Amino acid sequence: MKAPALSQFLEQAVSLLGEGAVKTAPSDLEPYCIDWRKRFFGKAAAILFPSNTELLAKIVRLANQHQVALVPQGGNTGLSGGATPDSSGEQVLVSLARLQQVREQDAVNKTLTVEAGITLLRVQELADAMGLLFPLSLGAEGSATIGGNLATNAGGTAVLRYGNARDLCLGIEVVTPTGEIWNGLRRLRKDNTGYDLRDLFIGSEGTLGFITAAVLKLFPKPAGLVTALVRVGSATDALALLQIAQAQCDAALTGFEYMSAQSVQVVIDHFPEVAKHGAQIIGSAGSDLSDSVLIEISHPASEGAAKEMLESVIAEAITQGAASDAILAQSMSQTKALWHLRETITLAAAEDGVQVKLDIAVPVSKLAEFITEMDREMLAEFPEIRLHNFGHFGDGNLHYNLGAPQSLAKGLSAEQRRAAYRTYIEQNEERLRRKVHDRVVAFNGSISAEHGLGQLRKAEAWRIKSSVELGLMKTIKQALDPNGILNPGKVIS
Ligand SMILES: Cc1cc2nc3c(=O)[nH]c(=O)nc-3n(C[C@H](O)[C@H](O)[C@H](O)COP(=O)(O)OP(=O)(O)OC[C@H]3O[C@@H](n4cnc5c(N)ncnc54)[C@H](O)[C@@H]3O)c2cc1C
């Protein structure tokens, strides 16, 4: 792209959106050019804040005319670098943050139609005010936007019962890469009228179109919700516990999150207060610490029924030797404390320093075997590596994360520690990543269960996917985005 084209584009963008909606100063741009984990540092020519779909469509048409690359961004909480521009300084970020309208609330149809820039937390609150539930839930929900959730097909902690973002969406509105508006805001649960375009855009990580609004599926609120933290001896025990819970609870089982001892250790290291509540069950530190599972039961009848169900699961698990102890939350604040421990793992890991972050899925029946074999193989080659595994065990999805050896940090300040870990990870990342991914492939699994490819996993996906699959993806991209202006360098381009 030639510089005059970029400056003409920016001049016309200012006329369209107004000065306040086009930022070009490096200090204004910086926070939007770094990803949440601080792994990707890009440089953008500008960030634009269109306030409605029509203005965004005009911007996209302008970008095609001047061959300017656009990078969609929501809350910038993505974990694959998909919303970070490249380092050329020529790409233009487009924030969806000002698309904030609630378009329609339909309690009878149990749907909520909102614009893309609304945060997930706000969507949950809107559903709650309608007396209903929007079950998508994840650690970054206060900042992540519903557009970003759909663009990444986010998962989170309730997939086991309600499915991922794709399953929670009935329709979308999209600005295509050539600047057309597709109104697919259908509030239908059945619609077999040709190719499913909605599902094509969901999960496309901003490479096939801007999602500008969505019809979300709502559910009745459960009458009773109970959570327990259960001490297990291993991933094999966790799988046995899952079998018991599914047999006894069926659809009432709404959460089943696994935390390895070392993943909790990292919370103890950096946020000891957060780990305090669970400590009596899973241990406090070092060799005393065990693996654990957070189970959530949502019962349609009552709190008492939910409690009874969960107590029965725990009793059976202890009888079968799959669990050795458990704590059942007795109040909402205890429930929150247990979930807070689980949700703080990502934050504590970021505080600890750079890790190799993997987001794998294998069939649920194979997950325990995968963890056991992978841990053994990993420790044989990297005896000091820290295995910070945790995740959505009930979905077969594990964040198989690898932390640098703690011995590297001896006597160092926090800043020096982070630098030492970064160097270690940068030196070993490719080997570690390949090792895990090769085993994932052997287990017929996925190298990205819920975080997407972005720029982080693009090369690995290209290594692993068949030429037929890659060819089909490239054909779709070329057909929708002939000028290659939308989020180049991500996923498939
Ligand atoms: C602490 C923490 C916990 C997390 N837990 C989970 C979890 O449990 N499950 C999970 O799945 N993820 C999780 N994430 C990752 C992240 O929150 C999700 O990927 C989320 O869906 C991203 O939303 P966002 O608005 O921040 O998107 P961004 O980070 O801004 O963008 C993500 C991708 O989507 C594209 N994009 C954004 N908005 C749009 C749009 N409107 N139209 C088209 N493309 C768009 C971007 O170009 C980029 O490729 C977590 C992140 C953090 C920091």
Number of domains: 4
Strand order of the biggest β-sheet: 5-6-10-8-9
Bound molecules: flavin-adenine dinucleotide
- SS-based class: alpha+beta
The largest β sheet comes out as: 5 strands, antiparallel
The count of DSSP E runs of length 2 or more, i.e. the number of strands, is 21
- Rg over CA atoms, rounded to whole Å, is 23 Å
Task: Give the end-to-end Cα distance, rounded to a whole number of Å.
Answer: 16 Å
Low-confidence stretches: none
Gross geometry: globular
Q: How is this structure best described in words?
A:
It is a single chain. The chain is an alpha+beta fold and 493 residues long. It has 4 domains: 3-95, Uridine Diphospho-n-acetylenolpyruvylglucosamine Reductase, domain 2 (2-Layer Sandwich), CATH 3.30.43; 102-220, Uridine Diphospho-n-acetylenolpyruvylglucosamine Reductase, domain 3 (2-Layer Sandwich); 222-350, Alpha-Beta Plaits (2-Layer Sandwich), CATH 3.30.70.2190; 353-449, Alpha-Beta Plaits. Helices cover 41% and strands 18% of the residues. The strands form 6 sheets. A 5-stranded antiparallel sheet has the order 5-6-10-8-9. Strands 15-12-14-13-19 form a 5-stranded antiparallel sheet, sandwiched between helices. The protein has a 4-stranded mixed sheet with strand order 1-2-4-3. Strand 8 and strand 9 form a beta hairpin. It is globular. The protein starts with a helix and ends in a 13-residue tail after the last helix. The mean pLDDT is 95. The chain binds flavin-adenine dinucleotide (FAD). Flavin-adenine dinucleotide binds at residues 36, 71-79, 82-83, 96, 116, 138-140, 144-145, 147-149, 151-152, 154-156, 205-206, 210-211, 346-347, 450-451, 454, 487, 490.
